[in-house]
Fold each of these.
Amino acid sequence: MAEQQYRTTHEIVMLNRNSLEVSGVVNVESFDSEEFLLNTECGYLAIRGKDLHIKTLNLEQGKVAIEGALYDIGYLDEGTQTRELAKGFFSKLFR
């Protein structure tokens, strides 16, 4: 499997499951108090938890810091369309 080349470094640093810093962020696709969807240099990153909020956001530097109770962090398949990614977000809104 060939290694992909990325423009910038992508890092995830978590402290005690309540503070998360992500670099290499291209865009914040969607967010609410239970789920964030970040477009990163390495693909879409879904972050789930409770009482989540943005501590810092600097897209020029590609950095996002999130605080709250973190339950799940994972990358989404490359074949998944952005519309499908946000589907989980909007389905929560209209429950």
Amino acid sequence: MRHDSPHIFGYTDRFSARPGETLTFHVSCENLTAYNADLVQLRHGYTGATGPGFLETELPSAFNGSYTGAWHECRPGSYVEVPDPGGLLRGADGVRLHATVFATMPLNERGSSLGAYHVTQNSMSRRSAAQSVMGTWDTTSETGYGLILDGGIPTFVWNVGGDAQRLALDTPLLPNQWYELDVTYAPGDGRVTLTSRPRDSLMNRLSAQAAALQIKSATTATAGSLLAGSAPFRIGASTASTQGARLAVDVFNGKIGEVRVNHADDIGPSIAAWHFGKSNREDGFLLRDVIDESPNGLHGTCINAPTRAVAGASFSGLIDDFRLAPDEYDAIHFHDDDITDADWPTAFSFAVPNDLPSGVYAARLRAEGAVQHVPFFVLPDTRAKKSVALLFSTATYLAYGNDRIAFEADGAEVIVGHTPIIDPEDLTLQDHPEFGRSCYELHNDGSGVVFGSVRRPILTLQPKHRAWFQAEGVWGLPADLCIAHWLETEGVEFDALTDQDLDREGVALLDGYEVVITGAHPEYVTRAEIEALDQFTAGGGRLMYLGGNGFFATVSFDPEQPHLMELRRSDGGTRPHQSAYGDQRHATSGERAGLWRNKGLPPQRLLGVGFVAQGFDRGTHYVRLQDSFDPRVRFAFEGIGDEELLGDFGIMGGGAAGAEIDCYQPVLGSSSQALVLATSAPMSDAYLLAAEEIFEMLPGLGGTEQVSVRSDIVLTALESGGAVFSVGSIAYTAALSHAGYDNNIARLTGNVLRRLLVPEPLLDFEPDAG
């Protein structure tokens, strides 16, 4: 949808590239006819007066210059498209269609608000009453055929001799019930028959409504062959032909499975028999390719990443791994608001020069009244690594990408303890729901969003973006730029890495680094990332965890489409929504969804601390503990007084301890040999103990009453010579720049970094003789 004010939107094909590789940029202009593009290095994001301000450095580039602006639409909606070069699915001689359907919005009305945040949903566009199950129906020319729901009523539409025909049953399907739908179009005997029957499935068998459901059938006379048209065969969408494009319309909301196309007489092998629970990959992952088991091999392709690895009509409830019981997972969940690739044309490309240092960059797009940054990361030349690597939390950026929680969460004020703060980009995002939702929100049908993608405009990724939950908060990329600029002031050069890179390359990516520093909020990571950092520290590497709520929950990257990230929610711990049982395993990795602590890899084992509480009213300071006076860690507190309050300042809530916080917990794996250097002052009662810490509902869960609601600074030395320094607070890095970096948080962090860069073993953990 378009609006009156000028805007530029853009994205790149992926987050990172090495020297010699090429990135593509995709740009759309709203109410603008031209724009300028320039390469800039991003140095600091926060624009408030209490910090260094927004800092970028303009750089020469082959793409710098002026470009003609054009408007390109995002078209949400997921479906499967099936190439049919031989016309086997045209149905001229008749056809029989079969599918099971589980319609989540059969009337195509707004879905109910579910989940911890109770997010209400805006329609992505003017919604049609029709939803397509399958077929070649072209809504523009009214040619081909289609099995659809029209106002929830099973309907077959077709064209004979240039006249559009339709056959409909008399009642709509009930929501969230499995049905079998069958259509037979037999021009030889002059009949069309449409049947709907409730499916005897686990979900229906336990429903009181299912017992009263009746088989519905209708038959009508017909004559002549189908007017086939030229629309492709699609599952989950119909086609609208306009200006040479074949747009997907009437997108289905809900699950479709067991899709078969047979000859009208049902004699002979199927024309097509797609199995949504099977894969042609050795690992069995269910990605974009859809397998046709018929002799014709009419394999399909998923568009806009509908959700696979979901329980189908035959689900028994006994096996939660789709690879072990593929017949029970013969289903795909489609949504009319899925968007994982805007599919805009390439505006310009950037071949990363061999001499461009590793770091954070952006294509800056400017015109009168509009500016937009498209950030990306340049990886190091593997032959010239620096001593320090900064691991940017790109998985977390995608999880929160385009979140609208400030506007659409019932009780947002309760979550943050004050009126939400609105950034201009948040207002723009409200005008552009077609850019897609974050993984913290719900689809229009009430199911949770499980995919995040680089290939769409992500307005929350702007380097100046401010978090909605704190008056001067930084979140995501702007928060991690606080670390980048602190390193610059320390005179420490660093290489930029991303979650996608570490997941793909493993510990080999970390070879040669002495210190790896995390971002402020590395909440979402893959198993490969945890294993890589564990191997890195076990091999003598040093890790600085400068954040909170880190290494918390599971994500996966699609091995064929690495710009696509999957994040499902399980039935335990802090979560904004939850996938249904049977739908809680990642299609892209086979990983069980959920918190790493619930899968045997609690962050305490790697970091020494783990998530315990969150609150957004204000932050607080740290106080030094007895371990901080141990002579073995004297280096960390050089220039810091014995009684100094650490971090009673900062641009995020006024204190270095706050937002989302972690504490030392030996019961979950924090090392007994770790030194707990400092702990936070008491938090307010806006900080509540995390759900995964609560086994019974008891009073006293707030920060003023619950001793576990705290942030701890911990230093752990490993026998390998490696070490881990953890601060356990998202707000920590937002305090680094206070007073021009002349403060005790910057001093403490700098002292530790300089010592970690010294190769000698960090600490001797024999009892202190002094």
Amino acid sequence: MKVIGLIGGISWVSTADYYKLINEGINQKMGGLNFSECMIYSFNYAEIKKNNEANDWDATFKLLLKGCEFLKAGGAEAIVLCANTMHFIADRLEDAIDLPIIHIATVTAVEIKKKEIKKVGLLGTKFTMVLDFFKDKLAANEIEAIIPKSQEDKDFIHNTIFDELGRGLVSAETKRRYLEIANQLIKDGAEGIILGCTEIPLVIKPEDVSVPVFDTAMIHSNAAVEFQLS
């Protein structure tokens, strides 16, 4: 089994999900008492959020590079960034660390193509929705991504990810609003919805909407399992 290194704490809630999903995935494939051989470097998210909100991605890069170097020194053969937003610097990190980084958008595009879907709604932090790092990976696979048109909707998603979901909090009103936004994207032509933040599965379940839902945390975890067993 290949060893993987997880960059976590971004947030701890989704990191716990990654650890659970990857270990379950290995066990489903191998049975018995077989589980993932992995390491976790977990950050204090407050530090990273402060950098990102100040648009200081160089500071965030230096922090994550430190974590990647620690994992590489421990024997990691690939890195998994346990958050969509951090993939804004994934290619840069991959070049610097000289290890493969399993890119969340690339593996999500593979799953979307299996459904023969050409247009998807993308929900996530403002960075994931507005910056091109996720959408470009989809476009390279001839998949168009659309995001909420309203700035109010974008702000609502971004703020609740940090103020509620990233702390493991879920309210009925927040769920209602997320579904309202998702359904508007479907009306605008989305044939599927990408849960482009690893905490959004807390509020949107596959049975909640009329189109396929792409849970990036689940897809990413499955890709990590495939790497470990390759």
Amino acid sequence: MNEGQMLLSKRIVSIDILRGLVMVIMALDHTRDFFHIEAMTSDPLNPDTTSGILFFTRWITHFCAPTFVFLSGLSAFLSAQNKTHSQASAFLFKRGLWLIFVEIAIVTLGLTFNPTYNFIILQVIWAIGFSMILLAIFSRISYSLVLIIGLILVFGHNIFNLFPPPKDESISLILKVFFTAFGTVVPLGGNHFVGVFYAILPWTGIMFLGYAAGLWFSKDYNPVKRNRNLLNFGALALVLFVALRLLSIYGDPAPRKEYHDLAKNLLSFFNVSKYPPSLQYTSMTIGVALLLLALIESATNKLSKVLSVFGSVPFFYYILHFYLLHTILIALFFLEGNTTAQIIQMPFFFRPVAFGYNLWVVYSIWILVVASLYYPCKWFKKYKATHNNWWLRYL
């Protein structure tokens, strides 16, 4: 292995470490959704009603989706280096379609455990899949076009917050799905609904910027310059976040609130909008992600090795953790004395509104789930490394 290949290998490991970290933190948020007593009845980010630990438990998971989407774009760039433009585009297009199917058929079932699919949930995998389809189209045209569109989407999509929504229902629905969706529920007829929780194009912008940043990780790119870029742009993004947050004029649909309480003001300052990912939210989260990419590139400790296992098989981990969480939920549901008559809840089966535990139980279940998934992920990582089956590229 030559020096360039060794550097590329190290950089890919650093990507896996960061991706593994956000996958582990992500599981905390989903564990809270399933098992916290207040998950269905209160907003953990509301400074008026939350506690410091509950706010942190939800807030820290803000970094997961944007970092994962950004790294998906970055990985798409690296994957394309060994393919022709047409091959790379075709793969992205097919993988995008596959991920949309997975969101509808597999992730929705893991979330709801409702075999009749009364409520289809479109979240981050749907947004990634659709964004990959768009990336397949625009990356085939030019790298520069991907970068320009990414910047326009990330910096410009909050302009829709400055205008009233259109009165035409069809146009309003299209605008919600592509730009502003948060909890948009679309009836399909009868007793079936689709919940659009991730607006597509703001996440597409993040993926496109990740794809553009992939250039820094190509094997011929100067590693010192790459590290400097990561540090500089990461710091710049955080400065932008602080400036926009202090001005509170543009970049988030929910302006910062002022309280006569220092603690509440601090919580309010960091309470930025994820649905859709506002410019302030994206600056905060991607800024930290860029800094971490620079700092963990040479990490070789035990924790980094564990995280890299999760990060090397994120799709496998993501699917398994939902089904494991819901299986534990079912066990606790019956242990709590609930009956089969109480199974059917909307949108999640086996999850009554009044069900749940304190945060220490949530954290305990989270640690148990993550630890339980380590060896299956380690096995699958080894399996992928020793097999060349075509379908493994989609997992």
